[in-house]
Write a structure and sequence with these properties.
Keywords: Membrane, Transmembrane, Transmembrane helix. The chain has 4 helices and 3 strands; from the N terminus they run αααβαββ. By secondary structure, it is α+β, with helices and mostly antiparallel strands. Helix 1 crosses helix 2.
């Protein structure tokens, strides 16, 4: 239970970027009233990998932001990416969150067959 509360609060703070007392109280209330569902079949290793990806994604988002400011990114493409291994809905949510967190990518659609449709913004290729 504590693990789910911490995960929900972490996601809440990443989304709101506000650590005021009122926001902390709202985050705790929302984390407590959200339905818990059935126990997940996720492996601990999958969760550790996801948390490592979150830690790496934060500085990567800043680097990509400055890169987009300094160098125009005018080309776009949509790529189908395979969902890694059988994933629970919680891990799929974290995958979508991580892909969308960086400014150059966004998940357009999740396909039940195990694919993400990802929109990329890229620099124009030099000829």
């Amino acid at each position: 239970m504590i693990g789910h509360l911490i995960l929900r609060l972490t996601i809440w703070f990443l989304l709101t970027a506000n650590f005021s007392l009122a926001n902390i109280i709202i985050g705790v209330i929302i984390a407590l009233i959200l339905p818990r569902g059935f126990p997940g079949s996720e492996r601990f290793r999958d969760w550790l990998q996801s948390f490592w990806k979150i830690i790496v994604a934060i500085p990567q988002a800043y680097v990509e932001s400055f890169d987009m400011i300094l160098n125009p990114h005018l080309e776009e493409e949509i790529v189908m990416e395979r969902v890694p291994a059988p994933r629970s809905s919680r891990l799929i949510f974290l995958d979508v969150f991580l892909i969308t967190f960086t400014p150059k990518t966004i998940v357009v659609k999740y396909h039940e067959e195990g694919w993400y449709e990802v929109h990329y913004v890229r620099r124009r290729k030099r000829r």
